[in-house]
Structures
1.
Amino acid sequence: MASIERRTEVTRARLLALLFPRRCPFCGALLGADAVQGTVCPACLPEEMRLQHLPPRLPEGEHAFYALGEAAAAYYYADAVRGAILRCKRGGRPWYAQELADRMAVLIFGALPARRVGELPQYRGLHTLPLYSCIVPVPPNRPRPGVPGLPLLLARRLSAVLGIPVVTPLYIKNPGRPQKELNREERLRRAKAAFACRPGTDLTGKRVLLVDDIITTGATASACAAALLQAGAIEVTAAAIAATEELPKAQQKKER
Ligand SMILES: [Zn+2]
């Protein structure tokens, strides 16, 4: 029975890949049978590996975290990773969220990579106690009706891989200037009061996985975590595609 289900799933993935061919999130090239782990074209692999955040856990000293248990990112926010995220967010190509979420599943959560383009990575935690009760995306600063932001798209795909439901209790109380226009102190101050859970949200006893696209100062993730704790969550862990930290020397681009 399980093998029939698996075969149906594979056929469905192949059919979808035929109708909507998957592309490398780092360069936009069509992903073929030679795609690495079903997500990256062979030409981008050296760059993809250079930018990986190893280990994914973020050092406290680089970010101003509070209320958060732990935070992790798959990559450093630089070069091709930066390009991939901007393509999703501002380039009007949100479909790369699927491949980026799959990289997060593999690099942060240790899922087994997809065997083919378009297939789901396999998460082996299925037979043990789930690490998290739910996945919560960071809400968009300027929500557009009917258009899911990148964190929500990442959360949905991670939900499919990890087998944990997505819930969206967070909202922004007072949207102001975009975060990137603010300095570190302004971000911290503004973020602290910016997020809340909708009235009636009950996260009592829940372990929450908070998902965002980029972690910079950690102000947003921390403020979201504080709001989730206030709604009863017992622990909040943050995960992002990338973190803004200086690349270790050995991973910096070689000057020619
Ligand atoms: Zn590529």
Note: The mean pLDDT is 89.
2.
Amino acid sequence: MAVQPQEIKLGTRRVTFPSEYLQQLEDSNHCLNDVNALHQEMQTKGYLYLRGFHDREEVLQARLEVLKYLKSTSDDILSSKQPLEMGVLKQGCGVGCVPFMEGKNVISHADPVRKVLEGPRPFEFFKNYFGGREVRTFDFKWLRAVHTEGFTGAHVDNVYMSRGSKELLTMWTPLGDITADMGVLAMCEGSHRLPSFAKFQEKYGNLDVEAVGLKGTGWFTCDPYEITDKFGGQWKTTNFQAGDVMIFTMRTLHMSTVNLTNLARISCDTRWQPLADVADPRYIGDFQTPGTKFGLYSTDESKTTSDNTMEHYRIKWGF
Ligand SMILES: O=C(O)CCC(=O)C(=O)O
């Protein structure tokens, strides 16, 4: 069935989806029984979009658990006029209204949530993907309920977690049916390998934002046009269904669409690697929840030129 074009926001830009600029993602489900084909897809696109990967009912149970948790923390987050499972935010619930749920905590590791994030499906998938080697996932979970107007700017994950396995992959799991106007991942296809991104990857992609004490989010930009104008690639996204996942490399540039609705956008990123590889110590074992927060929970300093801001580095790198 053809998708009706709709006006959404990708970072700072209003865009029509689907359109030439922001295309529909194609899934890689046809490769699921052929590990070489999965590798080939990852190599070509920089990601694997897999539909119906998790059990839908289990995902909806995990979502409900998160909503119950949010309700238990404060009466100011969710509207009591609507059924809890809808996840309707109270009017005015913006930045800072939804509690920080990243790390290893009562909700990131609640049974229904763990059942999805660390269930047999991802373990089997990654073991197969990594050629039969045993795998591990970080204890740290990037569990989020994104408020109205919230979004994630364009970045590669390598800037946050480059101190371990070179084969590390991200799996992004939407907890619920999440349409493009609620805040979904958009992938810049080819950004991990195209020669036009070589300098971007060498300079920005190799930055360890914590080691340099970067101020701000760690995002390269909030403007998707800047990426395609300067480096090329193709932005793609989709309306996600509960059960779908997006798996991608540490070098694949991605961002999210803006949550234009009054619904909490609940999702979690998890990380996977071969067990025998070194794991980034910041995210396993008895880590401390980071004092420095990057990404969504930081202030956007991308246009500030003072030392150690992204703008400072972009000028230094000649971007
Ligand atoms: O959920 C988001 O908004 C961003 C997720 C992300 O950047 C990631 O999975 O690496």
Note: The domain at 20-189+237-288 is CATH 2.60.120.620 (Jelly Rolls).
